[in-house]
Each structure stands twice: as structure tokens, then as C-alpha cells.
Amino acid sequence: MANIQKSDALLVKDYVSGDESALATLIKRHESKIYGFIYSKIADRDVSNDIFQDTFIKVIKTLKTSSYNEEGKFLPWIMRIAHNLIIDHFRKSKKMPLYRETEEFSIFSIMSDDSLTIENKIIADQVEIDIRKIIEELPADQKEVLVMRMYQDMSFKEISELTGVSINTALGRMRYALMNMRKIIDKHQIVLTN
Amino acid sequence: MEKNYSKALKITKRMKPDKEVVSFLLNYSKALKIMKIEGKVFEIIVN
User: In angstroms, rounded to a whole number, what is the distance separating the alpha carbons of residues A181 and A131?
Assistant: First the structure.
């Protein structure tokens, strides 16, 4: 009964001195405000219980290490801890978004299998073979630049250094290579689509 | 986040945490001993 009359500052002092019952009084006094505050942001009883528990674990550790400086602001201090833990919770849940199935939204609308079907794989392989054949038809200097650029992923600077021509010449050869490939495709009416 | 923060408050007056949570905290507090030795903090849980 005597504890009810005591201020937060005195109860904190008692608790730091080893009186465990002071913590029970502090929790009883403020649990409704703190839990209500957490629940108002989280709207989930279980998560709110977890955050309430984590809040007081931090409080207990801070008080037991005697690193809390009592300035008559015990409740605002706990509220600040709870607030920070709520922010942490939202940060974590943002990284792992939760999708709920509703009438308007189906999880399967955003889940798709991007891998090729066997038929599409065969077509893609055939397109690749056709392109290789077309490249073989190009003049050697154009073929060289195109292969370095498209298959070896080299920059035009690297190509110019390796082939001993200027960057502009390499660019020009690439341009002519593409133009000639288009001509061959048109001439033979090759279909290169998947 | 914005949606969660702007959600209408569903709380009824005097919401409280589960009794198990409070009980856990009180037991945890009793079991926890923190010692500072040469600037290092040691946490000991006494069962």
C-alpha cells in the first residue's frame, strides 16, 4: 500500500537498491499506458506483448547497470524505448512484406514462373544457332568487333586497343555489322522471335 | 507504415499485457545479475 504513494523516482531508486517489488509496482502503474501505446501502433496483441516485454527487458538492464539517470521522466523514457522498438518492428516487417489473400488481390498474381518452357527453350536455342550462322556471314573485321562486344562484353575502348584501330572505327564496324545482319535476315526472311 | 500509423485506434480503455509477460519480466529481473568488471559488463541469469 505504501508503494502506491511512492513516486516513480523513489521506486526506481528502491529497485536499483535491490527491491524487486518496486519493479512490480512500476509495471502495474504504467502497463496500461505503455501497452495501450504499443497496441495503438501495432494492432496485434501478440506482437504488442513481445514489444512490451522487450521494452521492459531494456528498462531492467539499464536500471541494473545503473546507467539510468533519474530526472523525474521515467514514463517518457520507457515510452521512448517502446517507440524505438515499434519503429524497429516496422523496419523489419518492411523488409519482409506480408501479403494477405483478399478478393481483389491474389498472391498468385505477383508470383510467376519465369523459366522457359521446354518448347520455348528449343526455340531460344534455335534462334541462338541462327544468329551464330548470320554472324559467320559477316566480313572478318565486323565479325571480330561484334563478337568482342556482344559475346565477350568488352568496351569499345578495349576493342580498339586490342584490334589496333580507333574507337570510332570500332564503332563504325559494329554499326555495319548490325546493318549487314539485318540485311541477311531480311534477305533470307529469317524469323528470330521466341 | 503510413497505413498502420493512420489506422483508427482499436484500443479499449485500460488494455494490459498478458499476465505471463509481466510474470516473465518479474522473474527475469530477479534472475538477472549484472556485473561490471574492468569496464566490461557481464550479464548472469541465475536459475
Answer: 9
Chain A touched by B1 (CB under 8 Å): yes
Residue A161 belongs to domain spanning = 118-188
Is the minimum CB–CB distance between A94 and chain B shorter than 8 Å? yes
**How many folded domains does chain A comprise?**
2
Q: If 0-12 CB within 10 Å is exposed, 13-18 middle and 19+ buried, where does residue A142 land?
A: buried
pTM of the full structure: 0.54
Is there a domain that residue B31 lies in?
yes
In this predicted model, what pLDDT tens digit does every residue of A59-99 receive, in sequence order? 999 999 887 887 778 998 999 999 999 999 988 887 665 66
In a domain, B10, yes or no: no
End position of a domain, from candidates A42, A76, A107:
A107
- On chain B, the residues whose CB falls within 8 A of the CB of A48 are 17
Distance in angstroms (rounded) separating the CA atoms of residues A95 and A79 = 25
In 3D space, the residue among B16, B4, B15, B17 whose CA is nearest the CA of residue A41 turns out to be: B4
Query: Is residue A40 within 8 angstroms of chain B, CB to CB?
Result: yes
Checking ipTM against 0.90, whether it exceeds it is no
